[in-house]
Structure formats: structure tokens, C-alpha cells
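Workshop exercise sheet. Pairs work together: one partner reads the sequence aloud, the other fills in the structure field after running the prediction. Swap roles for the next sheet.
Pair: D.N. / O.F.
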Amino acid sequence: MSASTNHLEERTRDSDELLEGIMPSAITLAMMLRHKKMAAWLRCEYDGYQDRDAAPPYRLDLSGHIVAKSPQYGWIPAPVADDQQKLELGHIDLIEGTKSLEKVCINSKKGDGNRLLLDEEDMAILQKQINLSAELAINLSRDVYSGLLRTVRGAVHLWTQALIERGLEGEHNHYSAEQRALVADLDIPEYFWRKAMDELDQLPIPDVQSAGFFKRMFG
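Structure field:
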């Protein structure tokens, strides 16, 4: 199996390339370089995290709007006037794999969001507080999903750039011990995803494209 840092870096900047396809290639490259920490992080991002304690901060406490299901009007803003309630319950963690999160983003139009039901315990507490028996959910905007996915993509972009700067260019079926030693200190996923968080607006990372009507209807 071959890997190319240059091609992978280019793919991170290509709006036609899905993260779903980029991640397996990045995992292969990390394994070839013996970047165990990077490979482990990439796998968690691709498959999802077991619990919130293992998830990075860009996946936690994501802000949304609390909505209620009305029999007459469907989902509408919930009558939550208390700022403290909004602060405590108006956020959610996303620990699912990037593949499923990307599908949500692709199938949402700009300005849309995705509803996630509140945890049963939180829902019961809030229903009692606002005297409402309707189902309650958090509506996360498409931008929240896109920002998370762009952060992961940005981290891969920065990692491949760093590898290229160290001289790991071109197509390779394997890397020698000397080549691996050149980049051994770059096996630091936290450095790259934190840098991606800080510089996301400056990175050449595309937004997730929304599927057209026919693609949403017929795949």
C-alpha cells in the first residue's frame, strides 16, 4: 500500500473530497510512519469516541437552541426564558464518528440545523421547570457540524504540511527508519488539532458542501 503526503495535503483543500475518504488514507500514512498517537486519534475521529471524557474540546458543549415538538406546528422554539436554563441545557456533545457527522452536514442546507433529543433526565427536569410535556430537543446549526469537521480536516492538513516541510514528499510504499526518525516528533495530534482550532478561519479548508435536492432524495 502506498501513501503520498503531497496528495493527502491536496485532498484536504479540495472541496470535492469528503472527509470520509480522506481519513482512511491519513490513518494508513500515520501507521506507515509509526505515528501511533496520530493513528489512534484519527481512528477515534473516524469511528467515534466511547464517551465524552475521551473526546477533544471541539466536540464538547456545542451550543444550540432548545426546541419543543408541537402537535400543531411541529418543532418550535421552547418557551425557555431563563438564561441559566439555556446555559445549562442548551448545549450538547457530539462524539459520533466524522462519517456520520459529515452525512448530517451534507444533507442539511445552509441555515438549517439538526435536532437531537435531550437526554431523558435533562428533558424531564426542563419539562417540569417550564410546565411542558412536549418532547424537547436541541437544534444544532449546520455551521456547528461544519466547524467540527473542518477542525479535523484542518488538523490533518497541518500535519501533512509539517511532514512535507521535513522532506517527506512523493509516493512511498514504505518509509525507512531514517525517514521515520525525521518526523518522529510530529506524532502529536493534540498540537495539530489545537492549532487547527486557533487558525481555522485562516486555513484553506473548504466548508462541507450541501447535497442538491435530487442527491438528498435519491442518494
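Discussion prompt: The beta strands are 3-4, 62-63, 65-70, 74-77, 91-92, 113-117, 136-141, 171-172. What would you look at next?
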